[in-house]
Design goal:
Helix content: 25-40%
Mean pLDDT: 93
Number of domains: 2
Largest sheet: 7 strands, parallel
CATH class of the largest domain: Alpha Beta
Low-confidence stretches: 292-301
Shape: globular
Number of helices: 10
Strand order of the largest sheet: 3-2-1-4-5-6-11
Structural class: alpha/beta
Length: about 300
Amino acid sequence: MKKLLVTGASGFLGWNICREEYKSWEIFGTVFTHPVKIKGVKIVQTDLTRYREFKKVFKEIGPDAVIHTAALSSPDYCQQNKGATRKINVDAPVNIAGLCADAGIPFVFTSSDLVFDGLNAPYREDDPVCPVNLYGEQKVRAEEGILKRCPGAAVCRMPLMFGDPGPAASSFFQTMVTAFREGRELRLFEDEYRTPVSGKTAAKGLFIAIEKVKGLLHLGGPERISRYNFGLLMMGVLGTRDARLIRCRQKDVTSAAPRPPDISLDSSRAFSAGYKPPQLKDQLAELLVKKIPAEKNFRLK
């Protein structure tokens, strides 16, 4: 069995990768502050920003491929903590790419749709990057450094993702589900557009990237949708009319990190490589029907 090293195994995407594919690979997952237990996965606690420490772990494992998901991904936090976040968001992935290049093994880096400014969607891989916040800038710098150190790397720009975050991470999706269940108001942007996929779907795309992809790849879903309409779609899947959705506008909200209005991804290249995200309604149904118990005024279809 080939060995796969997944960094950030306690994070949203790392958790979904480890849960989805543990039967196909011998998986080793790194964690930092949040040790987790995942069936079939060997968890290693290490600090990716300490190069010598991680290099020792890398050599001991001897991976046949690496998927790097570890990051500090809150745009607002990054905007206010430039120095601290650069180490994990830029320096660490470039260093790990170098180790993979030296070992001659595939390296997959998870970048972000936030490398774009949101003014010319949908975005293809060869469109110029123009981030509007520091997190997006860090991803751009990491992309550039990785492809310089490891030209054969797959740099996968990820869309908005939803689903099971695992025991240590969090997700906007869980906030929405809780609001639906408790009948609370839920304010959602009607002027922010993305091409979302579930964590499970994203994980499948990353495994395709290991085998088939070099360079930039977009792993967005087939549907462009606003956050407000995403909420309406959830209501339809759940078969409820009692959710209290309130339209609001991104441009009226002030946050530490600016947000682009439309960073929908054109993922035609990935589709041609065999990436086949189900329709959003079907991805939501798989998650919601299995995970959320039926309650009064909250029927499941």
